[in-house]
Amino acid sequence: MSHRASTLDLDITSKYSTLGGNAQRRSTSLSSQAQPKTSKPGDHSAQAVLDENERIFTELLRSIERRYIEVRELVRAQEKTTVIQAEGLLARLEEEITLLRKKHTDLEKLSHTDDHIHFLQSWQSLSGPSGYEDLNNVTVAPYYSFDGAKRAIAALKVQVEEINKTEISKIASAVKEVHIIQPLEPMAREELETKRREYTEPKTREDFKKYLVQPTLDVNSAHPNLYLSEGNTVAKMMSEPKNYPDHPDRFDHWQQLLCKEGLSGSRCYWEVDWRGTEIDIAVTYQSINRKGNNNECSLGWNDKSWSLYCSEDKYSFVHKNQSTDIAKPRSSRVGVYVDQIKGTLAFYSVSDSMNLLHKVQTAFMEPLYPAFSVWGFGSRVKLV
After folding, report:
1. Is the dihedral of CA 253, 259, 263, 269 positive or negative?
2. How far apart (Å, rounded) are the C-alpha atoms in residues 245 and 220?
3. Is residue 93 one of the residues assigned to a domain?
4. Same domain for 207 and 303?
5. I need a surface site. Which of 87, 162, 267, 335 has the fewest CB within 10 A?
6. Does 336 lie in the same domain as 212?
7. pLDDT in tens, 97-149
8. Which residue in 294, 224, 216 sits closest to 256, CA to CA?
């Protein structure tokens, strides 16, 4: 009996020792895994990322500073060249005027001489070339403008801001993927799904409202027959012209106006209520012509604007002197969606659901502004 007890004790002691050893090894393994491997600097450490962040962003700032100086010096050099050209031309014109006045005086004196031989000799020298004939082919612009460069810089700002926003989002996602406990699903699948959601265009009204902007109408661009109200969110056509002050941005023939704010960022969405005979809901470059009754001033009928024409009888899309009729569900509320980076412009009939009226893909070369035409007394548009 004592032998069996002794054997049992030895067996229990052996198993306990084995179990204890396994537990110790497991504990050591878990402790080792639980320690983040950041004690030694290396390519995968947080400090290495911070150092790289410092280096890259310092280089970017220096690069932007260099480009800023380049553009500044380019503008100043062009301005200086233009002024020198103008001053040189002015000096030559003044010389020619002085010469012509002298010739006029000499001719006046010559007209009173009785010496015919002297007259013929003097006339030949006075009627010869002046040396300034090339000035007859010079056309002088009434003014020069750097507006084109200004618009290009504004477009660069929009693109850089959008790239910054997109790339910083990617960096943030990559940082958040650093885990001690590895996820069960491969990270590539999650990243792919994130990108898919990021670049999917909105479908529901709630999706569109994530990009909602609330522009206001620009009174300085409004045609005199357009009355603004409700905090410059309503434009109504009236028979009696309003006594607006003269302004270079004001449309003087077509009953049109722009919004004060340009579209910032890549994606933008806004809604418009309209009532009356006929209206245009448009987007345009700020550089559209304002003076005159030609197509260059009319929303949709040139290469600087895109317009949805709405009337009681029909809808149509207008761009670059081309009109396309739209046979889709209509409503008194229209939604406009723009992705300036991807070049997307879409108009929607807004009711219980979003019904696409027309969509175009293009390349926007300048910042865009919401714009409107209002036709027929009493017709109006309202930004909502």
Report:
1. negative
2. 8
3. yes
4. yes
5. 87
6. yes
7. 787 787 667 677 766 776 667 666 666 666 666 666 665 666 666 666 778 88
8. 224
